[in-house]
Write a structure and sequence with these properties.
Layout: H1 10-28, H2 40-43, H3 49-67, H4 75-108, H5 122-129, H6 133-136, H7 146-165, H8 171-183, H9 191-210, H10 215-231, H11 235-250, H12 257-264, H13 266-287, H14 294-328
Length: 341
């Protein structure tokens, strides 16, 4: 930790996780000109960067809540702060995808292949604005936003249960709450239920590092979370997520300039890399035939990735940061000495 508030390893982890997702999408999912290629079966593991994000959120959100002195009466401010931080930048990035779909319809008479356009009906607009598309049976303007649904559901669940597991909570209550979250793995319902065990791993790291909860109990709960995930056939994602949790738990101060930069732009990269890819491929494949050879595909991948990083850095500075600063101005009801700004 560089100071009493910031866990430095989280920045490299966020950056690597976001980059892994981008590489998976570019080489293994959304860009026809880069497929087929010889690494699709390898880059497929990059999609597990999303589970790593969930583990990080599992740790960092209760960590910030603890240091901010969160209580139930802060729930509204907490949710508003998270929304201001995440929502407006996502809306702005989605506009680029909408513009691309409209251009595709104008030019080709149809939306992007494999990514149907949900249109501008009330249901589609409302569902995308509220990150609830999966519950209304409509599509996403930017398909990666499914994970934001899960994040917001997690924020709400944690806002409701956090005072029950905060510093000073008895072991039996922590065990009950965490066991309940693990059991959600088998329950039908919100997206968060399906991914609850990944958040639980992060929460357990928070409890290990920041509270006096019995470590044997936390180890048992961690094992239970892993077994719950494995029972659903998620052995590899659970293994990756467990490694992520252990890295955070270790307290390592590891950081490098490149990974810090990636961490800084990770959210912007995540929400902008899809429209960047769509626009770049549409233009480039019309002016070059590089995509017809393996070497050419490698050149195009590097070009697309470089462009995605550059756009993310610009988006971070121009769009994301202002809303980040705005979210920090939404203070909790009580000011706790030495709490985070």
């Amino acid at each position: 930790m560089s100071d009493s508030r910031h866990v430095t390893i989280l920045d490299p982890m966020r950056g690597v996780a976001a980059l892994a997702v981008v590489i998976f999408h570019y080489l293994g999912s959304i860009l026809p000109t880069l497929r087929p290629n010889g690494v699709e079966h390898i880059v497929e593991y990059g999609k597990m960067g999303v589970q790593v994000f969930f583990v990080i959120s599992g740790f960092v959100i209760p960590y910030a809540m603890q240091r901010g002195g969160y209580v139930w009466s802060d729930l509204g401010r907490f949710m508003l702060r998270r929304f201001v931080r995440i929502g407006p930048p996502a809306y702005i990035a989605a506009l680029a995808v909408i513009a691309f779909h409209l251009l595709a319809i104008m030019i080709n008479g149809r939306p992007v292949d494999g990514d149907p356009f949900p249109g501008f009906g009330f249901t589609a607009v409302f569902a995308n604005l509220t990150f609830t598309a999966e519950y209304f049976g409509t599509g996403w303007y930017n398909f990666v936003y499914w994970s934001l649904t899960t994040e917001f559901e997690y924020y709400l669940v944690l806002a409701l249960v956090f005072p029950l597991i905060a510093v000073g909570s008895p072991n039996w209550r922590v065990a009950l709450i965490m066991a309940g979250m693990i059991l959600l793995t088998w329950a039908p319902g919100p997206s968060f239920f399906h991914y609850a065990v990944y958040f639980v791993l992060g929460i357990l790291v928070f409890l290990w590092r920041e509270t006096s909860t019995d470590h044997r109990l936390l180890l048992f709960l961690g094992l239970a979370a892993c077994l719950a995930g494995i029972s659903q056939g998620w052995s590899t994602p659970i293994a990756v997520s467990l490694v992520a949790a252990l890295i955070i738990a270790s307290g390592t101060p590891f950081r490098t300039g490149p990974t810090d930069l990636l961490g800084d732009i990770s959210y912007s990269l995540y929400i902008t890399h899809v429209p960047v890819a769509y626009f770049a491929e549409t233009v480039i494949k019309r002016v070059t035939d590089l995509h017809t050879t393996a070497g050419g595909k490698a050149v195009l991948f590097i070009l697309y990735l470089t462009l995605a990083l550059a756009v993310a850095a610009l988006f971070r500075r121009v769009v994301e940061k202002p809303f980040l600063h705005l979210s920090k101005r939404i203070k909790a009801r009580r000011i706790v000495p030495n709490g985070p700004a």
